[in-house]
Write a structure and sequence with these properties.
The protein is mainly alpha-helical. It contains seven helices and two strands; from the N terminus they run ααααββααα. It starts with a helix and ends with a helix.
Length: 176
């Protein structure tokens, strides 16, 4: 029969897990609602939520490389405009020159600003979950799995700082 500390530890982990799942799973649409609307560009066909998912999936939640990609693209378009050239959107066969290219650069700049807003609203969601511990969180994968991992790490940390004695089973679970 488990002792009082074990029961308290289990209850604490259940409470932390429940709290984290309810309050910390990101609602991308709610976060994104505070960012301006994306400019309408026929070939983009994207939303705030799609951008957040794309960064999570293809960039492991790291926004800076994604933003840098768009900044390089913008700079490339500016260079073409400065040289009075024509930019071609290969995937759509669209040719942009002069005023059309200038408008496109403006839309790209808006997208970069909006993406920075999305970064502020959606990155660091788990930073507060790890504020008591020194262990780093792995922020890739399924949202529920991430929350579970964060809750588990937080529970073990809280147990450690409250003099909870880890059993052999706890130590084995900590590895997973």
């Amino acid at each position: 029969m488990p002792g009082v500390k074990v029961k308290a530890g289990i209850a604490g982990m259940v409470m932390i897990t429940g709290y984290l799942i309810i309050s910390a799973i990101p609602n991308n649409e709610a976060h994104a609602a505070t960012c301006p609307a994306l400019p309408e560009v026929a070939w983009w066909q994207t939303t705030h939520d799609k951008i957040v998912r794309h960064v999570d999936h293809h960039y492991g939640g790291k926004w800076d490389p994604y933003i840098e990609k768009w900044e390089k693209y913008r700079d490339k378009m500016r260079t073409i405009l400065d040289k009075e050239g024509t930019a071609i959107v290969k995937s759509r066969g669209v040719r942009l020159k002069g005023a059309l290219l200038k408008k496109h650069i403006s839309n790209v700049e808006k997208r970069i600003r909006i993406t920075r807003c999305l970064k502020l609203k959606n990155s660091g969601q788990l930073a507060s979950l790890n504020s008591l511990g020194s262990q780093k969180l792995s922020l890739t994968g399924n949202g529920v799995a991430i929350m579970y991992q964060a809750a588990k790490q937080q529970a073990f940390y809280l147990a450690k700082v409250t003099n909870y004695t880890l059993t052999k089973a706890d130590k084995v679970r900590a590895k997973y």
